[in-house]
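Let's study my pick:
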Amino acid sequence: MRLWPMVSRDRTALDALVLIGLIGALSGCSMPFPVYSVSGKNVASLRSMSKPIKLGQFAGDQKSVSCRLQPISPEDGSTFASYIRNAFNEEMIIAGVNAGDGAPELRGTLKNIDVDCGIISASWIIEMEFSVGDRAPFTVKTVREFDGNYFGQVVFSRAYTAFVPSVQAFVNDALNHPSLQAAAGGVR
């Protein structure tokens, strides 16, 4: 008879732990949006261009993507297009690129940005249409994979961690696109 009250107490404790775990899983944790950090490859690409480029307008109003029903959004209500433009700007500042009045202007329109938070593999997808000066527009699409996970909070955290390297890879793909290289006079 003494065993029964013990089982009841253990069962209540187990129920409480399960309830706490469910509340934690469903509430989601707020994470600060990652601050962009400059890539050495991108700085080297910018420095190798014989003619510097200047940044124009980057359009696109997408402000959020979803990873397992949890939103990922730039802070302050910014758009992903403005985040990517800022990434280009940061790279140009560190590279010491000073575009004069006659420099070709790089403009962009964000076509798609999304995150796939799979169980085994996951990826960021960034696609943007660019134009440089009066040249024909060109599209750059980068798909950067990262490890997925069965648990939503784990893959959500990994999606945040993988965002900046994904934008760095996207900027690198854009800087090394033949159309941008031709507009910037190619490599020195």
Summary: The two ends are 87 Å apart (CA to CA).
